[in-house]
Amino acid sequence: MKFKSLLLFLSLLLISSSIFSQKKKDILFKIDGEPQLISDFLKNYNKNIDIVADSSQKKISIYLDLYIDYKLKVKEAQLLGLDTLATFKGELSRYKQQLMTPYLKDSTVIKKLVDEAYNRTKYEINVGHILIKLAENALPKDTLMAFQKIIKARQAIVNGESFSKVAKQYSQDPSVKQNSGDIGYFKAFQMVYPFENMAYKTPKDSISEPFRTRFGYHILKVNNKRLSQGEVEVAHIMLKYTDSLSSLKSKIRIDSLFNKLENGSDFSDLAKKFSDDKSSATTGGKMPKFSIGKMIQPFADESFALDSIAHYSNPFKTRYGWHIVKLINRFPVPGFDEMKSELTKNVKRGERAEKIEASIINRLLATYNISEYQTALADFYKDDWFAKSDSLNKPLLKVQDSIFTQHDFVVYLQFKNIKTPVPYSLFKQFKGRKVLDYYKSKLEITNPEYAASVNDFREGLLLFDVMQEKVWNKARIDSAGLKAYFMLNRSKYPKDFEKNKGIVTNDYQNFLEKEWVASLRKKYLLEINNKALKKLIKKYN
User: How far apart are CA 349 and CA 355, in angstroms?
Assistant: First the structure.
């Protein structure tokens, strides 16, 4: 596979772009009447001239021979129907999807999100949280009920009830029993994006307006905002416990270890010998560096409270056990240039990626001619639409010249396992998806740069497949021909066949390729525009 990838890369160095103009003066040569443009040849020549090892190949006439040979091989591959094979189509399709990625990103939106994320990494925020659970595609009546509950909870807090009391009463977040709604400190990328957004936008000591995520409706109370403490690297000793009795025994043992530290014992040695955290014990208790929000709150609090390298905490308790932590190092928030690459990767994932995609969809919605067929859509508002889904096939949505039917929407809903009456929001998602699909399907027509890149890969893939069929596999299978070639050229090889087999095989492949190319030059009609060629030689050589 690595070999194939390398071959494709090398072959792409000799590929022409799609032909958009075919005026006689622009044509360098023809193969069976099919024109090959001067501009395509020069693009490849100029791209490769500095990396060509053999200086003779820098001559226009010699490079043209190589270029013609390449085009002949691709022509033969097409004639053999190699571009119709399922394996070829599958590989080309996968590449097109990869290649399409940059055309599905809004660089302006990405930059804005990266800048926003960096500014947020400078601060840590502590919030209280109340959740009313709601499915993403909930029915309107269920949505209204959840919204009314979150409004009622918020009003109780506004009227003077303590946040913790209201959280215990209303919140459906499972952690509320342990934390009374207080989820501690976090920063960018540690919560779902809408949650993070509302937290950073809400002033300190204020209650947010209700907002929705994929989990349901939320309200937040911002308890504190502070400058980011960056990351810390610590080592720890942990003694596990399972119940109150073992907790007491672990407390006695951790106090004993603490006394040993106070009397000069080595932290690393004690961790290796006594810590129940086996993943870190072998390294003297050393843990990977972390930031706020990456560890449970008591552990993070004790770790960040250490103000000097090599200082260690008093024993403290978490739900995992009793701990002592020692500070190894601190790492401040890096500068923007240092973080830019990682931030860019992060914003292209999760819900931020959805925002990037949404910006593309919204642009297309404003550009394309789109029609919705409301009568057909109304069928999905009914309780029995799923029972009748096999008969639903009326036109539902038109995007430019493409019609999408009720059946297309049924397939979309089945994938999401939706069987209840469909809210318009789901159809809106479907519409956005189909608009984007239409854009992708036309990209090779509407974007010459993308089309050229696809053509480059298509021809490179064809070259590999036809070389494999006509040269490499033939040399591998034809053992008699290989040995005959060896005997015919015996004087070239100082050792016997088996000891020279690798070299002989390579030479035999080159021999087969030369013979095959010679036959292609006889098979296909080659017409060179000598006038254009002379101009190129004069200009470049």
Answer: 10
